[in-house]
Amino acid sequence: MTHTAPTALPDLLIALRAALGDAHVLTEGDLSSYEQDWRKRVRGKALAVVRPGNTQEVAAVVKACAKAGVSVVPQGGNTGLVVGSIPDTSGTQVLLSLQRMNAVRAIDADNLTLTVEAGCVLQNVQQAAEQAGFLFPLSLGSEGSCTIGGNLATNAGGTQVVRYGNTRELCLGLEVVTAQGDIMHTLSGLRKDNTGYDLRNLMIGSEGTLGIITAATMKLYPLPAVSLTAWAAVPSVEHAVKLLGLAHQHLGAGLTGFEMMGQFALSLVDKHYPQLRVPLWQDTPYCVLLENSDTESEEHARSRFEYLLELAFEDGCVTDAVVAESLSQARNLWHIRESITLAQAEEGLNIKHDISLPVSAIPSFVANTDALLKREIEGVRIVNFGHLGDGNLHYNVQSPQGSDNKLFLQTQEDRVNTLVYNAVKALGGSISAEHGVGSLKVDTLPDYKDPVALTLMRQVKLALDPQGLLNPGRVVR
Amino acid sequence: MTHTAPTALPDLLIALRAALGDAHVLTEGDLSSYEQDWRKRVRGKALAVVRPGNTQEVAAVVKACAKAGVSVVPQGGNTGLVVGSIPDTSGTQVLLSLQRMNAVRAIDADNLTLTVEAGCVLQNVQQAAEQAGFLFPLSLGSEGSCTIGGNLATNAGGTQVVRYGNTRELCLGLEVVTAQGDIMHTLSGLRKDNTGYDLRNLMIGSEGTLGIITAATMKLYPLPAVSLTAWAAVPSVEHAVKLLGLAHQHLGAGLTGFEMMGQFALSLVDKHYPQLRVPLWQDTPYCVLLENSDTESEEHARSRFEYLLELAFEDGCVTDAVVAESLSQARNLWHIRESITLAQAEEGLNIKHDISLPVSAIPSFVANTDALLKREIEGVRIVNFGHLGDGNLHYNVQSPQGSDNKLFLQTQEDRVNTLVYNAVKALGGSISAEHGVGSLKVDTLPDYKDPVALTLMRQVKLALDPQGLLNPGRVVR
Question: Which of A405, A435, B72, B463 has its CA 20 to 30 A from that of A129?
Answer without folding.
Answer: A435
